[in-house]
Specification:
This protein has 174 residues and is mostly helical. The protein folds into 2 domains: 69 residues; 74 residues, no CATH class. 75% of the residues lie in helices and 0% in strands. The chain is built from 8 helices and no strands. Helix 3 crosses helix 5. It is flat and about 65 Å long.
Amino acid sequence: MTWLRGLASWVRATGVELIGWLLVVTGVAALVLPGPGLLMMVAGLAVLSNRYEWAERRVEPIKEKAFEAARFGVETWPRIALSVLGACIVMAFGVIWWVGPTVPEVGPFGDELPFSGWATGLSMMLSSLIALSLVAYSVARFRYGVEDDASSLDDQPDERSLRDLPLDDEESEV
């Protein structure tokens, strides 16, 4: 039975690593193709950070920059409205690319949209849904919620200063 447990552990570790690398490679491809490339790359690095120290070192600065950009993006209502409008425009283009209407021939392009079809349209619509959910998350967290854990920890006293505080009023009088 121990060999079975070892095999299950190996399969799990290998599967997690494969998923991490698949997300990174797919994210790199999605940088030039329609899709949420940066999100997939960061997700892949986050998965790989459980196993590799180099991935963990790269996830933290990306996470800090992402939170900084999200906080900046929802500082004003016009920014929020433009973000939502941009996501809706991407959704509309996704529907157009899925339907694949006939277009006039221009230069080397034929009578169809380049890369038209359900795969491109679906990836654009999924990107739009991800963008809308990230805007909603950012608004909830940075406009109405608590600050992220790292910045709230800066306001807390450290352990040493808590240890040096008197427990009750009697100790402070002595």
